[in-house]
Design goal:
By secondary structure, this protein is mainly beta. A hairpin with an 8-residue loop joins strand 1 (16-26) and strand 2 (35-44). Helix content is 12%, strand content 47%. An eleven-stranded mixed beta barrel has the order 1-2-3-11-10-7-8-9-4-5-6. It starts with a helix and ends with a helix. The protein is globular and about 50 Å long. The chain has helices at 2-11, 64-72, 230-238, and strands spanning 16-26, 35-44, 49-56, 97-106, 111-121, 124-134, 153-159, 165-175, 182-192, 202-214, 217-226.
C-alpha cells in the first residue's frame, strides 16, 4: 500500500493532462448516430482542481453542462487527498487501468448509464466513455439551455463488494434561471482497479464552475477535495 502511494505521488505532481473520447446515445437514436464528445484539460492534482474543455460534433438534445458533469465525474484521481489519513484509491490505480460503471436517475425519471475506462499514457489520462440516456421527454428541464452550472455537492465513497472496488453516490443539482426551481440526479458508480486496495468510508466535496459556454462547446472547472470521515469514526465510537 505504501509503495502504491509513493508511486502515485510521483506521477500526479504539477500539471496533469487529460483527454476525453466519448459517445453519447439517446433512446430512439440509431446506434450509428451517436453524439461524439471530445475534450482536453489540465489539472493540479495536489490542489484538487481540473479544467476541462468539451466539444460536441453537433447540438445535443440536452444541456451540455449535464453531460459534461457526468463525464468529468470520472476524473476522481484529481481529488486533493494531501494531508489526510484516507487512502487515495484513485491516484494509486495508475499506471494501471480504471473502469467505472455509472447509473443515474433524474427527478423527472430520465435515466443515464455509462461505462468508462481510464488509462495513463505518456503523462496524459485518457478517458473513453459510452453514455446512454433513456426517458427524455419534450417537457424535461434537461433540454433547457438556462440551467445553472452544477451546484456544490458531496460525494460519498465507501468500499465495494470486492477488495479492489470503490462505491460512490452523489446527488447532482442544477438550478433554473430564477434559482427557484431545480433539476437533479442521483448518480451511483462502481469504480474498479485490479489489484488495488478499497478505500475507507469518506466524503469528497465538489465545486463546479462553467467558465465558458457556446454552441456545442463547454469549458468546465471543478475543485474536488476530501472533506472528512468523521461520520464513520463517530459510528465506530458508538459501537
Amino acid at each position: 500500500m505504501d509503495h502504491r502511494m509513493e508511486r502515485a505521488e510521483s506521477m500526479f505532481t504539477g500539471n496533469a493532462k487529460s483527454k476525453v473520447i466519448a459517445e453519447v446515445h439517446f433512446e430512439l437514436d440509431d446506434p450509428e448516430s451517436a453524439y461524439k464528445v471530445t475534450g482536453e484539460g489540465f489539472a493540479q492534482p495536489l490542489e484538487g482542481s481540473q479544467s476541462l474543455e468539451l466539444n460536441c460534433t453537433r447540438s445535443l438534445p440536452i444541456n451540455l453542462n449535464i453531460v459534461g458533469t457526468i463525464i468529468q465525474t470520472n476524473f476522481r484521481m484529481f481529488t486533493q487527498y494531501t494531508g489526510t489519513m484516507v487512502y487515495d484509491f484513485f491516484k494509486t490505480s495508475f499506471p494501471g487501468t480504471m473502469t467505472v460503471e455509472m447509473e443515474g436517475k433524474f427527478c423527472d425519471d430520465m435515466t443515464v448509464r455509462a461505462t468508462s475506462t481510464l488509462t495513463h499514457v505518456k503523462d496524459t489520462l485518457i478517458l473513453r466513455c459510452q453514455v446512454y440516456f433513456e426517458g427524455l421527454t419534450e417537457e424535461s428541464l434537461a433540454m433547457s439551455e438556462d440551467l445553472s452550472c452544477t451546484m456544490p455537492c458531496f460525494e460519498v465513497m465507501d468500499k465495494g463488494d470486492k477488495a479492489d472496488e470503490a462505491l460512490s453516490t452523489i446527488d447532482l443539482v442544477w438550478r433554473t434561471t430564477n434559482m427557484l426551481g431545480k433539476y437533479s440526479c442521483r448518480l451511483t458508480s462502481i469504480v474498479k482497479c485490479t489489484g488495488n486496495f478499497a478505500p475507507p468510508f469518506h466524503f469528497i466535496g465538489h465545486e463546479y464552475k462553467l467558465t465558458e459556454k457556446s454552441e456545442n462547446k463547454s469549458s468546465l472547472c471543478s475543485t474536488s477535495k476530501v472533506s472528512c470521515n468523521r461520520h464513520k469514526l463517530l459510528q465506530e465510537q458508538l459501537k
